[in-house]
Design goal:
With 145 residues, this protein is of the alpha+beta class. Helix content is 26%, strand content 49%. It contains three helices and seven strands, in the order βααββββββα.
């Protein structure tokens, strides 16, 4: 059974500016440490990626996988699910953004991953937490930097 991990941070920018960075898959290798290659395979009518292929290398774990993205009509969130992977059985995640005041947005990252290889639940949750912390930290640095 896959466990759910979630974490939030506040980023010094408006929702639209943060969502623009999240949607800019072509530039992920510039700021996502583990991203070796990111390819948008299909886009929606607004040009946002709806099927994206990732080649990630996080040191001890490397994976090539495809995700299907669903963009919230509100413009304040996106969710995804795994299409295929070398290492994962399933993955579901999301970014949810809530404007606090002008120039400040709470960003919540949610992730559920189930690997094809057995892993002790405690270690898997620790790995998911590390992934979320890195994702939020790198996003914050990219947006505010």
């Amino acid at each position: 059974m896959a466990d759910h991990t979630e974490q939030s941070t506040v980023i010094g920018a408006d929702v639209a500016d943060i969502m623009a960075v999240i949607a800019d898959f072509d530039n992920y290798p510039e700021w996502v440490t583990a991203a070796r290659e990111v390819s948008v395979l299909d886009r929606d009518e607004l040009g946002r990626g709806v099927r994206v292929r990732f080649v990630l290398d996080a040191g001890v774990l490397a994976d090539t996988y495809e995700l299907a993205y669903t963009w919230d009509q509100s413009g304040a969130g996106v969710s995804w699910r795994l299409i295929s992977s070398d290492l994962q059985r399933s993955q579901e995640g999301s970014y949810r953004l809530v404007q606090q005041v002008p120039g400040s947005t709470k960003v919540t990252y949610s992730l559920v991953v189930d690997l094809q290889i057995p892993m002790i639940s405690q270690l898997k949750r620790r790995a998911e937490k590390a992934i979320i912390e890195a994702a939020l930290g790198e996003l914050k640095k990219r947006v505010e930097g």
